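User: I'm curious whether this sequence folds into something compact or stays loose and floppy. Could you predict its structure so I can see for myself?
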Amino acid sequence: VSLSAFNLASNDLQAYCGFSDQLAPYRCLPKVVVSGNWGCGIFKGDKELKCLIQLMACAQAGKSLAYCTFCNEAFAADALEVFQRLCSSGCTVGQLWGILSRVNPESYAPRLPSVFQIVLAELPDGATGC
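Assistant: Here's the prediction. I'll summarize afterward.
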């Protein structure tokens, strides 16, 4: 069993629509999205999964993501580590989508390994740069 493709796609599309310039093509919109732990009620409140969904949506929209962790230093460090590994491995949005779609929702609460740990385990160690 994997994450519901519908829920994953719905959340990614929701974030993309909010982050993209498609609905305002004649307005100069910021190139950075400032976001945080929004929408964490779905997927049993998984901040890690929602962070990665927002990261994918920003990448698709051509935006940078400034993710506010609200003073949660451990989460900030973990998110930064995952982001750096995603970049150094050359992981695409499609590849990350594939990893996330294989996450087993039955293992939620409490889940070990976490979504970040699953993603890190799936990424190659190669360094190709961002």
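Summary: The two ends are 32 Å apart (CA to CA). The longest strand covers residues 32-35.
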